[in-house]
């Protein structure tokens, strides 16, 4: 029993040390990002992801790395970072992962995939304003993909479920445009 307790305490201490080191390394990568040294930031973030998988710092690094890839005009690399990650991301990170994935698909002109990613983000989001914004992004992508019925459904959902949020005003305008004023 004493050995079990000792092993448990040792494991907890090791995990905490890993979290602390990963957080410190993430701070260095953030500094490079904020200094607009995107190649260095990408390298440092990839190292945190590889060396500290399973930590909060690794999850944050993956989101920031995808953002760096988008800023570098590399949406396919952002998709590579996020596509398999987003569905299994921690609850606190999942909506952001889907939002960035949607943006990466949009940058490549893959509107259908972008809309699907944004809608997955709606399901993962915890805050109403984020749900409404992702629905608006999804609707915009559905329009670009030529599927106005799904766009209309997303705009109607904004008006029904999130009428007090910022995107509701845009949803009213876009819905009127798509339906020629027939649906309010």
SSE layout:
Layout: H1 2-34, H2 38-51, H3 56-71, H4 75-82, H5 91-108, H6 111-124, H7 128-145, H8 148-161, H9 167-179
Kindly summarize this structure in a few lines:
With 184 residues, the protein is an all-alpha fold. The chain contains nine helices and no strands.
Structure keywords:
mainly alpha; 184 residues
Q: Your description of this structure?
A:
The protein is mainly α. It has nine helices and no strands. It has helices at about 1-35, 40-50, 55-70, 75-80, 90-110, 110-125, 130-145, 150-160, 165-180.
Helix fraction by DSSP (H/I, runs of at least 4): over 70%
Proportion of strand residues: under 5%
Instruction: Look at the helices and sheets and give the structural class.
Output: mainly alpha
* Multimeric status of the protein: single chain
Euclidean distance between termini CA atoms = 67 Å
User: Mean pLDDT, rounded to whole units?
Assistant: 91
Low-pLDDT windows of residues: none
Rg, Cα atoms, Å? 20 Å
User: Can you write the helix and strand succession as a string?
Assistant: HHHHHHHHH
How many distinct beta strands?
0
**Apparent shape:** elongated
Biggest beta-sheet profile: none
In DSSP terms, counting alpha (H) and pi (I) runs of 4 or more, how many helices?
9
């Amino acid at each position: 029993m004493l050995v079990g307790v000792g092993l448990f305490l040792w494991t907890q201490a090791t995990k905490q040390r890993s979290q602390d080191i990963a957080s410190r390394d993430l701070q260095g990568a953030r500094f490079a990002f904020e200094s607009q040294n995107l190649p260095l930031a990408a390298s440092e973030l990839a190292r945190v992801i590889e060396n500290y998988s399973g930590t909060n710092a690794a999850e944050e690094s993956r989101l920031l790395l995808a953002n760096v890839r988008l800023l570098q005009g590399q949406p396919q690399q952002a998709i590579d970072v996020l596509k398999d990650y987003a569905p299994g991301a921690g609850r606190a990170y999942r909506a952001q992962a889907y939002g960035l994935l949607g943006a990466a698909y949009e940058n490549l002109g893959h509107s259908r995939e972008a809309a699907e990613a944004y809608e997955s983000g709606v399901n993962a989001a915890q805050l109403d304003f984020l749900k409404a914004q992702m629905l608006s992004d999804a609707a915009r992508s559905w329009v670009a993909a030529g599927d106005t019925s799904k766009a209309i459904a997303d705009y109607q959902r904004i008006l029904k479920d999130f009428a007090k949020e910022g995107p509701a005003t845009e949803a009213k305008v876009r819905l009127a445009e798509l339906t020629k004023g027939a649906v309010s």
